[in-house]
Write a structure and sequence with these properties.
Layout (H helix, E strand, L loop, with lengths): L2 E4 L9 E7 L6 E2 L4 E6 L4 E5 L4 E6 L6 E3 L3 E6 L9 H10 L5 E3 L5 E3 L6 H11 L28 H6 L14 H8 L2 H9 L18 H9 L2 H13 L5 H8 L23 H16 L2 E9 L1 H16 L6 H15 L5 E4 L2 E4 L5 E3 L1 E3 L2 E3 L2 E2 L7 H16 L13 E4 L19 E5 L3 E7 L2 E15 L5 H16 L7
Helix pairs in contact: 7-8, 11-12, 11-13
Amino acid sequence: MPINVVMPQMGESVAEGTVVRWIKQIGDAVERDEPLFEISTDKVDAEIPSPAAGTLSAIHVTEGQTVPVDTVVAVIAQEGDAAAATPAAAAAASASAPKASASEAPDGSSAPLTATSDKRAQKSTAASNAGTPAPVNGQSAVASQPAQTAAGSAQPGAAAAASRGATVIAHPRADMSRDDLRRQRSSPLVRKIATEHNVDISQISGSGISGRVTKNDILKFLEHRPAAAAAPAAAIAHAPGAPAHAAAAAATALQLPHVPAYAPGEAVEIVPLSVMRRKIAEHMILSKRTSAHVHSVFEVDFTQVSKIRDAKKAEYERLGTKLTFLTFIAKATIDALRATPVINASLDGDNIVYKRDINLGIAVALEWGLIVPVVKHADEKNVLGLSRAIADLAARARTKQLKPEEVQAGTFTITNPGIFGAQFGMPIINQPQVAILGVGAVEKRAVVVDDAIAIRPRAYLTLGYDHRLVDGAVADQFMSMVKKNIETFDANSL
């Protein structure tokens, strides 16, 4: 039975991915877990392994194309499948079935598909074009059944799918609630942005598959809606008892003009943003718009940790890992998170979601961007386990060997600009988390100890937190615990 290869979700807030490069081509034999294609998202650039052994019989998404998660991007034919055809046979099948040979890309352009002689694969492709994600386990759509969503309603773009030969039974849109329309036309991330900015998704023209509203669509809509900016002002102005200054402030919420980045004739080099850099930019803007960022900075004495590190460093190297200051900071942070559950939580509308697991994200700087792999169940690891896990994730991040699940489900993030010499930073929260810890350089400084000048290794730690959920007192209590855990670190806990 042919196996559908889908666009993986590389993080809980990631709704789409871009195919950067196909490592395998039509007709190539592939082994299970062998790199199949490379993708780029705002979370990670990664090589995606093949879910099964067989022959790559169809590619549905071309290089450079961006599609929502769970979209079928390719088909792998296993031994005995009719779809396990040579490229020549695939071309012949394509000629005999032209309606299955092309699909409309999210940007409206025509993206080539390679049709196979396996009718089940064709049905799966038709279901995908109709807006219904094909099952991940390789089961294909059945032609005798209507192409419907899990809720039982037809996806948008059904008419276009029918024109390509798909069997579709459309339900009247009048029978569907606004929430139903939102669910079928957008991802959870897009719905969250729409709710926070009071946007009706049904009014946005989607560029995704079958009219799906993507994150780019709603962000562009928010940037270019002067009429929408005036609506809240009018509502405030007419609200009974509304302060005059509130209405005036809302009325002046105008779009900033575009300032040219260079003048005509100026000596410049123009390079397009990479997929990862563009998506990082979008994610950072979204985070600043979503969370009420506040930062607290604490200076921490690393004298005790330095003594332990000097004593144990050689032993850890014999065990195949390095004992870094970051490992001690991670352990101290985990213990503080356990005692302060709200820092390890998330906001979901009017609800607080307390995470029972402590999944620690560690920001890793790459030549082409930034990535945050996650140490799952970090609170169950000792210092040695944390050291190994952090080093392993960082090494595989730099070689694009991370698995999709290794950049998902983070509950708190640590970023370490101190390795480049920064005294401290004001990091942006990694959504949907509510806090992030920035680590400054550990340096020897002259300080006052017992009314005398002494030289001590010290560093600044910065907590960025979402003031919608975390009060300043709670944030400072958390940082006080982190500081105490580091300054009184127990050598017996290693």
